[in-house]
């Protein structure tokens, strides 16, 4: 939990401050032509996304879940309704007009809808007291919540892989963004399924 929390803290410290000024000139995402609301949707997405990523870190913390179940439930409601759902809907709207090309636009929308679908499925499962299903869906929701972070982490790798092959700067940026976005979604989905399929080790006393 500590390394994961540190990575998330560094990511937020890097990503959030430029948008606290509410100055569109500080945005790291170019606004598409003719979409004046883009910046404000982006700011709202980042605000809800910050709530989501902090909330989901607390939700997967085993100590909190075991020793403070009431807090776990309350933080879960915040994660779902004040974090994941609004942030995912905004991500789909923003992603549909991605300045990094149509392939990444489709990928962003798909990732946002997966996040939304996993989260709603997890919420419905816990309301129906299907706790095993709730855990599975929420692990997948956690994975998609980490998508932006993973994409940023993979961006330098994508640039290094493509730089020897692509000389044009604009083409390089578009292809690197597409590669890192694709690798992020695939990696997170595979890792979450591996985590669900793995066989937990038995305690020493049970051997």
Task: Based on the model shown, name its key terms.
207 residues; DUF2306_membrane; single chain; mainly alpha; membrane; disordered C terminus
Helix content: over 70%
**Which value, in Å, is the CA radius of gyration?**
18 Å
- Helix/strand-derived class? mainly alpha
Q: Describe the biggest sheet?
A: none
Shape, per Cα inertia axes: globular
The DSSP helix count reads 9
Instruction: Determine the N-to-C terminus distance.
Output: 27 Å
- Low-confidence segments, given as residue ranges, are 202-207
> If you average the pLDDT, what whole number results?
91
How much β-strand is present in the residues?
under 5%
The string of secondary-structure elements, in order, is: HHHHHHHHH
Extended strand count: 0
Task: Present the secondary structure layout.
Elements: H1 2-15, H2 17-20, H3 38-59, H4 62-67, H5 69-95, H6 102-127, H7 131-145, H8 147-162, H9 169-197
Helix pairs in contact: 1-3, 3-5, 5-6, 6-7, 6-9, 7-9, 8-9
Transmembrane segments: 39-64, 76-97, 103-123, 172-196
Pfam family, one: DUF2306
Organism: Amycolatopsis plumensis
Please characterize this protein's 3D structure.
Keywords: Membrane, Transmembrane, Transmembrane helix. The chain crosses the membrane at residues 39-64, 76-97, 103-123, 172-196. It holds the Pfam family DUF2306. The structure is a single chain. Helices cover 77% and strands 0% of the residues. By secondary structure, it is mostly helical. The longest helix has 29 residues, at 169-197. It is globular. The two termini are 27 Å apart. Mean pLDDT is 91; it is low at 202-207.
């Amino acid at each position: 939990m500590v390394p994961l929390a540190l990575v998330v803290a560094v990511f937020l410290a890097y990503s959030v401050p430029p948008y606290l000024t509410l100055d569109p000139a500080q945005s790291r995402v170019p606004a598409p032509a003719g979409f004046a609301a883009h910046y404000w949707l982006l700011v709202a997405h980042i605000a809800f996304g910050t709530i989501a990523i902090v909330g989901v870190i607390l939700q997967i913390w085993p100590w909190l879940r075991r020793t403070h179940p009431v807090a776990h439930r309350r933080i879960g409601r915040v994660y779902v309704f004040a974090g994941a759902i609004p942030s995912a809907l905004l991500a789909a709207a923003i992603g549909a007009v991605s300045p990094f090309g149509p392939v990444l636009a489709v990928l962003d929308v798909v990732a946002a809808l997966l996040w939304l679908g996993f989260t709603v499925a997890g919420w419905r499962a816990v309301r129906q007291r299907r706790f095993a299903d709730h855990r599975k869906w929420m692990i997948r929701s956690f994975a998609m919540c980490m998508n932006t972070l993973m994409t940023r982490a993979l961006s330098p790798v994508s640039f290094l892989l493509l730089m020897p092959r692509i000389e044009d700067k604009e083409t390089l940026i578009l292809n690197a963004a597409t590669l890192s976005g694709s690798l992020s979604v695939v990696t997170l989905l595979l890792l979450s399924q591996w985590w669900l399929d793995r066989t937990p080790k038995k305690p020493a006393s049970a051997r």
